[in-house]
UniProtKB/TrEMBL annotation:
Keywords: DNA-binding, Transcription, Transcription regulation. It comes from Salicibibacter cibarius. This is GntR family transcriptional regulator. InterPro entries: Tscrpt_reg_HTH_GntR, WH-like_DNA-bd_sf, WH_DNA-bd_sf. The keyword GTP-binding does not apply.
Amino acid sequence: MKAVFDDSKPIFQQIFEMIADDIVDGELHEGEQIPSTTEISKFYQVNRATVQKGLSMLVDAGYAYKQRGVGVFVAEGAKRRLLAERKEEFHIQYVKPTLKEAKRLQMSKEEFIRLIEEDYDD
């Protein structure tokens, strides 16, 4: 998880995103217990209800599940689903606008692919 919060969005949403990032990055694995509400709230000095709201978002989205009296765990298939969703977001947010600009510049498909291939491994 990242060290600080910013003012760009509510803290509970940032907690949700930080844990989702940890799942995508392989720092949290399927079936692994997510740090408790108490641990997260103490570490980040935020209200437990705020942390609880972020964890509930993960559960509601199906990326995590609660085990009563034990804690919250990463759900099976969470990483695969998050990666698929983020790839789709990447396509919409970055690829489509870039492709639109390449076409506006009358760049051929081959030129566009060549540029990507040249920089892909850097």
